[in-house]
């Protein structure tokens, strides 16, 4: 195996794993890697949790997604009685994610870039949480009750390159939530061609039936002309931060 043998993806909401990193997840899983998914919002028993489980199967994940159980910042019913993801105590969240990191022992962690790709507050919070948990998981004195320390080798931050934004921007409505700005191509460290997995990526995206029916962004995406849509689907891009010398290649 040329890439990571153990990878943990941390996403804010059901559907993000498929839309932004579905091809990478499926490529790793098909290559024999142990791939795990943490979803920070929504809870078991909700419709979108069930759709998430369906999407994970389409992406060939061997285990069900791990749910942190916080509420989507814009949908309180996503986790009745729970704190909003961006308002819950940060130390509590770091400890929860550290516990999973120490059990799963991923070589790489994958989440959004520092801008949450397009400024979504839950995405930005997931970036900060993942980076903090990666550091804390390696410190033996930090919550020794959560297991032996584990050093993650590399962080990967999914991002949208400017060139792809340029291709889709003319086809977006002014009020669209899809990205209107992107990361300069020169600042992208890794481009993953996921063409071989585009079928399962599309099936995973369409597993999120509730969000497709509700979300203007998903509808905007579905309405893109074939060329820009194909470009968007077949390529996933990342910025890389190594936490140990040399790090570990994602794929």
What's the topology here?
Blueprint: E1 6-11, H1 16-30, E2 34-41, H2 47-58, E3 66-70, H3 90-104, E4 108-112, H4 116-119, H5 121-137, E5 154-159, H6 162-168, E6 190-193, H7 198-207, H8 209-214, H9 216-222, H10 226-234, E7 235-242
Parallel strand pairs: 1-2, 1-4, 2-3, 4-5
Antiparallel strand pairs: 5-7, 6-7
Q: Explain this structure to me?
A:
This protein is an alpha/beta fold. It has a seven-stranded mixed sheet, with helices on both faces. Helix 1 runs antiparallel to helix 7 and helix 2 packs antiparallel against helix 7. The longest helix has 17 residues. The mean pLDDT is 95.
User: How many domains comprise the coordinates?
Assistant: 1
For the record, give the distance between the C-alpha atoms at the N and C termini, rounded to a whole number.
9 Å
Shape: globular
CATH superfamily: LmbE-like
Structural category is alpha/beta
Unreliable stretches: none
Average of the residue pLDDT scores? 95
CATH fold name: Rossmann fold
Radius of gyration: 17 Å
Largest sheet: 7 strands, mixed
């Amino acid at each position: 195996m040329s890439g990571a043998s153990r990878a943990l993806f941390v996403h804010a909401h059901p559907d993000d794993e498929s839309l932004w990193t579905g091809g990478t997840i499926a490529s790793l899983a098909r290559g024999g890697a142990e791939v795990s998914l943490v979803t920070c919002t929504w809870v078991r028993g909700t419709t979108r949790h069930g759709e998430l489980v369906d999407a994970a199967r389409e992406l060939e994940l061997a285990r069900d997604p791990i749910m942190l159980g916080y509420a989507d910042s814009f949908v309180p019913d996503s986790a009745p009685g729970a704190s909003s993801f961006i308002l819950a105590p940060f130390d509590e969240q770091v400890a929860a994610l550290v516990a999973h990191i120490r059990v799963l022992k991923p070589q790489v962690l994958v989440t959004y870039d520092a801008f949450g790709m397009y400024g979504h507050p839950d995405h930005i919070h997931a970036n900060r949480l993942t980076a903090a948990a990666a550091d804390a998981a390696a410190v033996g004195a930090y919550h020794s009750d959560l297991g032996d320390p584990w050093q993650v080798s590399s962080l990967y931050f999914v991002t949208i390159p400017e060139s792809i934004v340029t291709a889709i921007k003319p086809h977006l409505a002014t009020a669209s939530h899809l990205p209107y700005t992107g990361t300069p191509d020169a600042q992208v460290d890794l481009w993953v061609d996921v063409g071989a997995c585009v079928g399962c990526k599309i099936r995973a995206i369409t597993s999120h039936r509730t969000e497709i029916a509700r979300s203007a962004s998903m509808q905007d995406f579905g309405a893109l002309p074939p060329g820009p849509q194909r470009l968007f689907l077949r390529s996933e891009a990342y910025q890389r931060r190594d936490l140990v010398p040399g790090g570990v290649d994602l794929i």
